[in-house]
Structures are given as structure tokens and as C-alpha cells.
Amino acid sequence: MRLRLAGAVLLSAAAYYVYLPLPSGVSEPWKLMMLDALFRSFMQASDVAHAMGVCHRVHLLNRVVSWVEVIEARSSPAVNVTDSALGGIPTRVFHPIRGERLKRGVIYFHGGGWALGSGRMRSYDHLCRKMAEDLDAVVMSVDYRLAPEAVFPDQYHDAIAASRAFLSTEVLEHYSIDPERVCVSGDSAGGNLAAAVAQKLSSDDTLKVKFKAQALIYPVLQALDFHTPSYQQNQAVPILYRPVMARFWLQYLGGNTSLEPLLLANNHSSLDESGISAETRSKLNWTALLPAERRKHFRPVLKETGSPGVVGEVPGLTDVRASPLLAEQGVLGRTPKAYVMTCEFDVLRDDGLMYARRLQDAGVTVTSDHYEDGFHGCMVFAYLPMMSSVGRRSMNNYIRWLDQNL
Ligand SMILES: *[C@@H]1O[C@H](CO)[C@@H](O)[C@H](O)[C@H]1NC(C)=O
Ligand SMILES: *[C@@H]1O[C@H](CO)[C@@H](O)[C@H](O)[C@H]1NC(C)=O
Ligand SMILES: *[C@@H]1O[C@H](CO)[C@@H](O)[C@H](O)[C@H]1NC(C)=O
Ligand SMILES: *[C@@H]1O[C@H](CO)[C@@H](O)[C@H](O)[C@H]1NC(C)=O
Prior knowledge:
Blueprint: H1 2-18, H2 29-51, H3 57-69, E1 79-86, E2 89-96, E3 103-109, H4 122-135, E4 137-142, H5 154-166, H6 169-174, E5 177-187, H7 189-202, E6 213-217, H8 229-233, H9 242-253, H10 260-264, H11 278-282, H12 286-289, H13 292-295, H14 310-313, H15 329-333, E7 337-345, H16 349-361, E8 366-375, H17 389-405
Parallel strand pairs: 3-4, 3-5, 5-6, 6-7, 7-8
Antiparallel strand pairs: 1-2, 2-4
Helix pairs in contact: 2-3, 4-17, 5-7
The structure holds 2-acetamido-2-deoxy-beta-D-glucopyranose (NAG) (4 copies).
Keywords: Cell membrane, Endoplasmic reticulum, Glycoprotein, Hydrolase, Lipid degradation, Lipid metabolism, Membrane, Microsome, Signal-anchor, Transmembrane, Transmembrane helix
InterPro entries: AB_hydrolase_3, AB_hydrolase_fold, Arylacetamide_deacetylase, GDXG_lipolytic_enzyme, Lipase_GDXG_put_SER_AS
GO molecular function: acetylalkylglycerol acetylhydrolase activity
């Protein structure tokens, strides 16, 4: 009897920990809750270790992730998998063994807030393996340096260096990649790097080989407005909570993490901040860039007075290499045709939607693929035990788009 009672108490405590009120419409809410409980327990454990001075929270998280998730490079009968380097940057290469002699090429940047994750993780390994098989493509998954040791522009420079090497004649010939069929892609913070790479390399006239396509999966693209309708609507939706994104940004840009509440209040982009021009503001003005059905009832949070000087202190906030949404129209217009995936239940939804709109305005052919029941991370978590239907759907559509456009 006492055992049963204790069991019931434990079970309800666990259910209380896992249960989270989620918006109706999100794909398979219980699976998302389980995923969130897993992430939250890791986060909390690493916060405790951080507070106790055991180690930096990011290091503990990365160690746990490596222990659970990083797998050896293992070839299958269909795909040869090797760990190599591209422009000096560690890279896992997936090479289809059969198929055409000349293959498509994809360079991929993993997500994780510029601080977590690896192309050697099970989830990314599975994704890239599947892409290699389904697309008959050589896929290169890049392990760029991570925060807090590396801060902007290190990650960006690694992404550029790896991409330049990828597009070089030596690499294309060595791996039998068709120079007319190469693509840059990534999810979340990796989508940010992919967009930044596409901008930089499309405008570089010294390069002979250009990307044919850019495929951006729920990318993060700006740090000046933490009150877009999607930030407001999804601030408490797992797994990417609004404050977590602000902290990732500060870590990436080398800003003091004590600035987090200020960023969340949009005090860093108040009207008295002279470091942000009217032209820059217009590039992320969602009242003009988003359709009414996404703006809903939300109102812009634009302070008359805030904390001028933060942009001077953290110059990366307005650097287009960190925030691809701030690019000039002319730069956007030179980038290749684009696939932009967005999820309704994701703080970054509007970053992606605004970027798709600005690319379109610049004359780029854009496929905007929106998931009404999607949440941040759903495509890559399609392989976890909590495999969600939206995860599987989005991955299939992403790969189909590449098949038809690359
Ligand atoms: C896989 O690639 C490595 C390195 O390029 C090569 O040495 C090896 O022979 C390849 N294996 C197969 C089965 O093609
Ligand atoms: C960050 O800001 C806090 C509070 O303003 C300050 O005490 C701390 O020294 C700062 N840290 C660094 C590394 O500048
Ligand atoms: C933001 O700025 C306002 C002034 O406009 C100030 O009252 C408020 O305390 C600031 N908030 C933060 C978190 O810095
Ligand atoms: C944003 O666009 C709206 C509608 O075009 C306009 O009324 C508003 O002044 C713009 N705001 C900024 C900050 O540019």
C-alpha cells in the first residue's frame, strides 16, 4: 500500500514535471513535452553545475550531448562515411557508393545556438546519410567552432572557409561533385550560417563555382527584435524559449549575458539608439513584411527610450554577417534560389518569413515551406524516439525540394 502510494506520488511528480500547457494545433503534444522535459532536465543540471562553478553550462551540455549522441563515422553498403577536414575545419563526409559518376553536393551546418551540437551527432548523421542516399549527393557536415570559446565572427569564418574549400576545383574533382549542382544548407543557427555564406559567396566575383541553391531550415536571422509576433506568441513554447534564444545570441556575439533582460525588453533597439539606421529598421519591420494572418493581434514593441550604447558595446548586433536579414536588397538579389522552412510554434518563425519575403522582393525564387503544426527543431528530432509526424513530413519535403531543385 505504502509502495503504491509512493509510486503514485512519484508518477504524478514526474507527470507534473513533464506536463506543459501547449498551444492547440502543435503536432503530437505529448512527444514534444517529453522532448522538452529531457532538454529542461539537461539545462537545469548544467545551470546547477555552472552556478557551483564546476564548469561552464555549455560545456556540461555539450559533454552530455556527445556522450548520448555522437557516433563514429560508419559506412553502410550505400554510403561511405568518413571524418575529414574542409579548409581546415573538421567535417564529416557522406559519399554515395553507387549512383551517377558526377554527384550533387551539399554543405550542411548543424544547429545548436552556435554553442551546441555536432555534425557527428546521431540525428545529423542520419539526416546527412539520408540526403546522400536519396539525392545521390556528396554531403559535407561541418563542425565549425562553438561558443563560448569561439565567438562571432569565428563561427562565420569557419563556415566561409569550409564553403570556399567545398567549392574549390580540387575538392569538387576529388569527390566527383558536379559544380553546377551544389547547395548550402543548415538548420537554426546553422541556417544562419548558411544564409550568411550564401550572401558572401554569391557576391564574390573571384569564385568560379557558385551555389545553385540555399536551403534554410527554421533559421535564426536577426537579434534586434525579440518581440516579433512569433517571439510573442511562442515565448513559452518548447524547446527554444525566448530567453534561451537571447542568451544564445549574447554568447555568439560575445556580449555580457547580463544584458539578456535588456534584449528581451527590446531596449537595445530603442529609437534613441543612433547605431541603428531607419534603413536597417525597415529590413525587419514586420508590420510591413508579414502578412496579416501572421501578425494577428500582436503589436510592435518599439521603445522611444531604452539603452542606447548597447549596439556600440556589442557591435555584432547590427553586423550583417551575424544577422543576414539586415542585408541590402542588392546582396540578397545575387543569392541563389531558396527554400525557407518555418514552423508556426517557433520563436524564429518570423525571422524566416521576413527573410523569404525580402529574398522574393529582391527577385530570388523562393519556396516558403510553412508547417502549421511544426515546432523549432522538429526536422532534426525526427529521428529521436519521440519521432514526430511533422518531423518526418518536413524532412521528406525538404529532401524532395532538393531533389527537384538541385
Ligand atoms: C571510403 O572512403 C575512404 C576515404 O576516401 C576510402 O579510403 C575508402 O576506400 C572508401 N570506402 C569505400 C567502401 O568506398
Ligand atoms: C557583466 O556585467 C556584469 C553586470 O553589469 C558585471 O558585473 C560583469 O563584470 C560583466 N562581465 C564581464 C565579463 O564584463
Ligand atoms: C528598458 O528601458 C526602460 C526605459 O524605456 C526602463 O524603464 C526599463 O527598466 C528597461 N528595462 C531593462 C530590462 O533594462
Ligand atoms: C514599418 O512599416 C509600417 C507600415 O509600412 C510603417 O507605418 C512604420 O512606420 C514602419 N516602422 C519602421 C520602424 O520603419
